[in-house]
């Protein structure tokens, strides 16, 4: 077995898939993540403060790329974390379709508006967008004997 294969095998032992329930738990315990979708055929990633509920990730937006290109688009939302003490990291990804629920009157939109996130960025963000989840996945990695790689 070559060095690369040994490294991959050792690394896989510390990798564990998270259940959907664990993923939603991690999503619910944080409030800053990244939403990604195509803008003029180019992938764009935006940091957003968010809330979760009703099977969706909710975030606010001012007029601009998120408001113009987001609604109706398939998108991906991601958060991650690292515990230096335990040497454990995790990542959660939500894939789905973005809806503008600012004025929507359906039951899901009414429920989501009660969870209004509070953006840290300055300015008025009156538009309320929801990434309605189609897929939720996550993984945890690390543990005893795992050393965090140095930043580049």
From TrEMBL:
Q: Which Pfam families match?
A: Pyridox_ox_2
> What InterPro entries is this protein classified in?
Pyridox_Oxase-rel, Split_barrel_FMN-bd
Organism domain of life = Bacteria
User: What is the scientific name of the source organism?
Assistant: Candidatus Nephthysia bennettiae
Q: What is this protein called?
A: Pyridoxamine 5'-phosphate oxidase family protein
Spell out the Gene3D superfamilies in the cross-references.
Electron Transport, Fmn-binding Protein, Chain A
